[in-house]
Design goal:
- By secondary structure, the protein is α/β, with parallel strands linked by helices.
- The protein has one domain: Alpha-Beta Barrel (TIM Barrel), CATH 3.20.20.
- 30% of the residues lie in helices and 16% in strands.
- It contains 12 helices and 14 strands.
- The strands form 4 sheets. It has an 8-stranded parallel beta barrel with strand order 3-4-5-10-11-12-13-14, surrounded by 4 helices.
- Helix 1 runs parallel beside helix 2.
- The longest helix has 17 residues.
- The protein is globular.
Length: 371
Amino acid sequence: MQASGNGTNLLSSFSLGPLLLKNRMVMAPLTRCRADAVTRVPTPMMATYYEQRASAGLIISEATVVTGKGVGYPATPGIYSPEQIAAWKTITDAVHAQGGRMFLQLWHCGRASHSSFLGGELPVSSSAVPIPGELYTPTGMQPYETPRPLEANEIPGIVALYAEGAKNAKAAGFDGVEIHGANGYLIDQFLRDGVNKRTDAYGGSIENRARFLFEVVEAVIKVWGKDRVGLRLSPSTSFNAMSDSDPAKLFAWVAEKLSTSGLAYLHCTEGDESDLRHGGQIVDLLPIRKAFIGTLLVCGGYDQAKGEAALKNGRADLVVFGKLFIANPDLPERFKDGKALNAWDETTFYSPGEKGYVDYPTLGQAQNVRI
């Protein structure tokens, strides 16, 4: 964790394990739904998209399922077939050719899915607690189904899927992997007692609810080594109807325990008004910062000023930007030169095609920008 250049700021370099990042700006994992809808193979357009943003100190890929049985959204990519691995290799090659670094985010949706994505099988989770409301499926909007609780003897097989995804990410040329433990997906469904109602070794106490997470962390570290593995958590999120009776205690405990794992980093999302509106509790990240001995990434509505402040006051080591990187492929250069920023178009976040994906102008192109 040593900066070089003109002090510690967003544009200063950073040593992340064996990797020297050219700046402290991280591109967030951003689901964009541009993979092949049937095979979940990344497309050539995705290679262009990531190559355009290779000036980030680190790119974290969009959430990428480790198994076809972990899917929950249309046209999201996978990392479980030879064709997917080969296509991701073209992407990492393109990013590396521009001097970039890239981690793959390992994902399993758990209950945030539907049987129509899963060949008629029910989604799995820690417990039989459904998400209220509906989701978009291959057959249109459908109510969420009550998930099937995983049997204890099935869990090692799920852990092995994360490890296999990590191996495949290595074959695809990534610089490391990030485990998706956030946003109400499978790992989060074990962590939080609003969903986890188990009475076996994976339920009840915080230690038991975190058991699945730490088994995944251990398995992935065996593949990559501890200094090439990150973890994303969302202590405050209410997304996917998540809740916990004491999230501050839960995530401080997890952060302290993670300190002994030697992870490359812990990536935490900030809570916002949307979480509060949906019944969430805002968890202060400062106790997590103190509990976790290692590199901390923060994400959630950061702009340049807020990002610089987070570094200056020691709140974080690296700052994660999402929508700003969507609309500004050359975001570090714009920050460096104080240039105007392109505005993002939310209507194209998940739509197919190039519009709102690879057509945002850079500073060297004709400017049609808004603030």
